[in-house]
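Saturday, quiet lab. Running sequence design on the structure tokens for the scaffold JK sent over.
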């Protein structure tokens, strides 16, 4: 399986984020059968094995000054590589539209996780089906707290 950044529509979204971040920020998912325009950020992690920087556009919601993302991997039984990279090194870089942000990742737990899950599910309802498809894997809700 190719790296996510090698999948044509993802590679195009990454390139769009680098050339026209305002347009990339509000991404039209309908071209892939999605529900329409969705807010996306560009997450850059450090590869836990390679040490290389890896970028990926993800749906997000800003909550209380932090950026919240879901490590769904479309409901697959294992966590996405970007999540494993954040477990190894929670420091990351974000582009939120044209705004560059340094952040530190943490996994929401308990009531916070449930509250944030519902807020993200409002934006992208397929997350509910992804959790069903994931079986025993509890899909992580990741909070990206900005740092100075």
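Result came back. Writing it out in full:
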């Amino acid at each position: 399986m190719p790296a996510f950044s090698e999948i044509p529509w993802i590679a195009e979204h990454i390139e769009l984020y680098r050339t026209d971040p305002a347009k990339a920020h509000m991404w039209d998912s309908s071209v892939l059968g999605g529900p329409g325009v969705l807010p996306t950020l560009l997450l850059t992690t450090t590869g836990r094995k390679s040490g290389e920087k890896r970028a990926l556009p993800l749906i997000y919601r800003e909550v209380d000054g932090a950026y919240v993302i879901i490590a769904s991997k479309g409901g697959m039984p294992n966590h996405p590589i970007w999540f494993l990279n954040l477990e190894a090194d929670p420091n990351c870089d974000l582009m939120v539209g044209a705004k560059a942000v340094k952040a530190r990742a943490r996994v929401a737990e308990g009531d916070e996780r449930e509250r944030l899950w519902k807020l993200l599910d409002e934006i992208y309802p397929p997350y509910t089906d992804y959790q069903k498809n994931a079986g025993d894997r509890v899909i992580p809700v990741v909070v990206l707290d900005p740092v100075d």
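Notes for JK: The longest strand covers residues 37-46. Helices lie at 8-19, 21-25, 81-88, 110-123, 126-133. Ask whether to fix the surface positions before the next round.
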